Amino acid sequence: MYVPDDLAERARAAGVNVSALTQAAIVAALEKNATSAWLADIAERPEVPHDRVLAALDAARDEFDQ
Question: Which Pfam families match (predicted)?
Fold first, then answer.
């Protein structure tokens, strides 16, 4: 990873842990990509009508109440 000398010096002077900051940024980018892929997969699933969702919730509640 390249950091210009002046930026690296400013980071050192400010006590910034560039390595930890870089690692955190990479992890955040990977997690964002994973979340985006997961959401794209969900978007491709067929829609379920609202009344069917409510009926399934009612059935589950009835099952747990017994």
Answer: CcdA (PF07362)
- Residue located via tokens 């930890």: 20
How far apart CA 23 and CA 8 sit, in angstroms, is: 16
- Rounded Cα gap, residues 40 and 45, in angstroms: 9
Contacts of 11 (CB under 8 A, 6+ apart): 3, 18
Residues 11 and 18: beta-carbon distance below 8 Å: yes
pLDDT at 26: 97
Cα 65 from Cα 5, distance rounded (Å):
66
Which tens digit of pLDDT belongs to each residue from 27-49? 999 999 999 999 888 877 788 99
Exposure string (b/e) for 39-65, b if CB count within 10 Å is 16 or more?
A: eeeeeeeeeeeeeeeeeeeeeeeeeee
